[in-house]
Amino acid sequence: MAPYLDEAFGNPSGMHAVSRLAKNALEEARERAAAVLGAERPLDIVFTGGGTESDNLAVIGGAMAAGGGVVTSATEHKAVLRSAEFIAKLGRRVEIVAVDGAGHVDPTAVVQAVTDDTALVSVMAANNETGVLQPIAEVADAVHDAAPHAVVHTDAVQAFIGEDVTVASTGADLISLASHKFGGPKGVGLLYVRNGVELEPILHGGGQELGRRSGTHNVAGVIGMIAAMEVAIADRPAFRQRVAAARDAFEAELQAAVPGFEINAPRNGRLVQHSHVRLPGIDVETLLVRLDQAGIAAAAGSACQSGAIEVSHVLAAMGMDQRRASECVRFTFGWTDDATTGSVAGAAVAAVVGEMR
Ligand SMILES: Cc1ncc(COP(=O)(O)O)c(C=O)c1O
Fold first, then answer.
1. Which of 143, 261, 304, 344 is most exposed, with minimal Cβ within 10 Å?
2. pTM score, two decimals?
3. Best CA proximity match to 348, nearest among 308, 293, 306
4. How far away, in angstroms, is 123 Cα from ligand 1 center?
């Protein structure tokens, strides 16, 4: 990234030699991103300011361009759900398909929710909170068969690092990615747009990205993103092995030491780096503070806002009541983890839980 913050600090839309350096690097990055995703053309890649923007452009831009409504699932990231709400405010039909107790969306239920006025179907590849994998390829096939007029979007922001996410593997017409979820810089992402899919821009201005996303490019960010993308896919098999070993060792420690310990997603149906667990009788807000002091960063399944506990919409959609949801914690593993760090973390969490009980 460094040259694009220094000697090649040109605006790729400019006419100067330094701009051409930036422009060439940007277009090369577009070709490489298209190759990683198996896109038909480099032009099918739109660079954005991250996952939220990619989701907004896909859902709002896709629905507005086709003049129709949206079908999505109850456990999507808020970037998708709030975009769908915006489309509803415009008077379009928005259907939120329920998930089962394990967090899965049923492709048949998705198709049943699609009508002639559905412009776009959005189902995530994997849930960011529980790690639950959705059957996105089945959803895309079923929707394309039953309703060829509808465009299929998948938010693959959380899935990309560990799962095979390509145009072919997802079958989607629009794919959102965020660089910081696979080791790249924050505040940059991309949206894959299948040739022929129309999008109404949500950012209006200078007409960059073929008018689909105005605004001066974050060249260094894009360069960092594509480098991280290529490293992530080359390292994926090793990453999966290491984090699976970390997760297994972590969960084994908790299983042995914490009575009533539960894992909230099926082992084979979730992201390899996720462990979303329930620790009965534990006040998770206190646990998170204690874990932070012990150097372990985890996240709660409920958020305390203005004094009132708000159950995460993901856990609520899976049918969890407030008490059970308030006992849930999300742990995720990364590059530096292996069976040893997983086991150390599991023992440390078990010790804190033991003290709290
Ligand atoms: C599934 C999912 N979608 C979208 C986003 C939003 O991405 P960003 O933070 O890059 O805007 C996130 C971020 O956590 C996510 O996990």
1. 304
2. 0.97
3. 293
4. 14
